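User: My instructor asked us to take a sequence, write out its structure as tokens, and then describe one feature of it. I'm not sure where to start. Here is the sequence I was given:
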Amino acid sequence: MITPDDLLLEKYFKNSLTHEEHAQFEIRKKDSKFVEQLIIEQQLHDTFHKAGWSFANNVDKAVITEYQELFNDEDIINLKATLKNIDHSSEPIKARYDFRWKHLIYAAAASVVIIISVSQFNGTNSTPDHVYATYLDKNQLTYSIVRDGDSQSALDEATALFIDEKYNEAMPIIENSIITSQENLPAFYLLKGISLMEMGSYDDAIIAYDQLISSDFLDAEKGYWYKGLLYLKKGDEKKALMIFNKIRKEHLYNAGKATEIIELLN
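Assistant: Let's start with the prediction itself. The structure tokens for your sequence are:
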């Protein structure tokens, strides 16, 4: 069943919200469950728009041909025909807008995007900047955020802006929350660090990560992962490898991915 929130999110990603709907969208962003749904939809949206940007100019022609053949496979064609013939005419929006079907289709296509992206690392496209773009998963961070206490609404608002890459708008909320509340501090430190990193303020981002690392929070070790990615973005491969080796040896957060990066860069 399609809910009003589904319709609101659909229009949001199509940039077709009316003034009234935009006001309603801002109200709904104060609800944590709505924000969680927004995060999921943003990840699906980013999978196609950003993955295409990252790899379109670097995909080997043979790989393209291989996956074109995959999508032209008879079973895949039959599946597409079956989906197309499903009738939801009684619903206000056709099946192609049904989030349940969209999740299924996006997941299948995303798998192909991931396979194509991984195949590129077998070539020469494993520069620090490319590795950074591949392994920075901002949605992974937002999925793991635990909202608690009075700062929950502030965290939801900052997270929504962060997802929209409106880092300058998110920063005042993040900074104020760090100063005025002791709740959700690990999440705010990470949102701050990544926002600064994406804006190119590397020194300030390092300070945010170091503050998290030196804390006694359970998520403190996540600071190492994002600090390693920061050095990749800066092009400092030596410092990045030092951090990823530490993550691997001490089995810290994302140790498996750190090992992958070490192998790619060596």
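For the description part of your assignment, you could build on this observation: The two ends are 50 Å apart (CA to CA). Try explaining in your own words what that tells you about the chain.
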